[in-house]
Design goal:
Length: 204
């Protein structure tokens, strides 16, 4: 799913964690200050390397999702390999104190009908996004805090799912999503939208 039909003026903030945790403290502080709950899609590798990060996300009552073990392209994998990627990621997240079911996000958004059916068969709901901030490109990729904000505010839609990232750009070390988050929350609320976790969007 890329958005939630019938969700009205509710928006889901989602963060992918796969590279590092450079922006996590800033993100969690902003979410806490603004009383916003989000959904974090974590790779098993990230969860194993950042158990304290998983604990902080859970302690703040945010939601978790599965983002595979090693962030590989799923259309290149056999069904047993997909099951292994998802199963090992789930085990790593659970070992760190989290609970990823039932949400899954394909690495790179790389999926087809076969991989979607396989993921469904493993008990997960694949979640895409309605707008990608592109903050992960970093300043070296031509992005800036202001362009991240404008991408989100320009792409707002009822039941929308916003894709952001926890880590820093590997080339320039920028954390544009974390830096832009306060302005994104302010602008989204000014546009008449409110924030909920994916659970609430689905329940609504």
């Amino acid at each position: 799913m890329t958005s939630i039909p019938g969700a009205g003026n509710q928006i889901a903030l989602t963060f992918d964690g796969g590279a590092n945790a450079a922006g996590l403290q800033s993100i969690l502080s902003t979410l806490d200050r603004e009383h916003v709950r989000a959904t974090f899609f974590l790779t098993g590798t990230w969860a194993a390397a950042n158990p304290d990060g998983v604990a902080r996300i859970m302690a703040a009552a945010h939601r978790l999702g599965n983002h595979s073990m090693t962030h590989t392209a799923f259309t290149q994998l056999t069904d047993p390999m997909i099951a292994d990627e998802i199963g090992r990621a789930e085990s790593a997240i659970v070992a760190a104190g989290g609970a990823p079911r039932p949400f899954f996000r394909f690495p790179f958004g790389d999926r087809d009908s076969r991989t979607i059916n396989t993921v469904n068969g493993l008990g997960y709901v694949p979640v895409r996004w309605s707008v990608d901030t592109l903050g992960w490109k970093g300043t070296s990729g031509g992005m800036a805090r202001e362009s991240v904000v404008q991408r989100v505010l320009g792409g707002l839609q009822p039941g929308g799912i916003i894709l952001m990232h926890v880590g820093s750009n590997p080339d320039d070390g920028s954390t544009l999503d974390a830096d832009a988050l306060p302005l994104i929350i302010e602008g989204t609320r000014s546009a008449g939208f409110d924030f909920v976790t994916l659970d609430a969007l689905l329940a609504g």
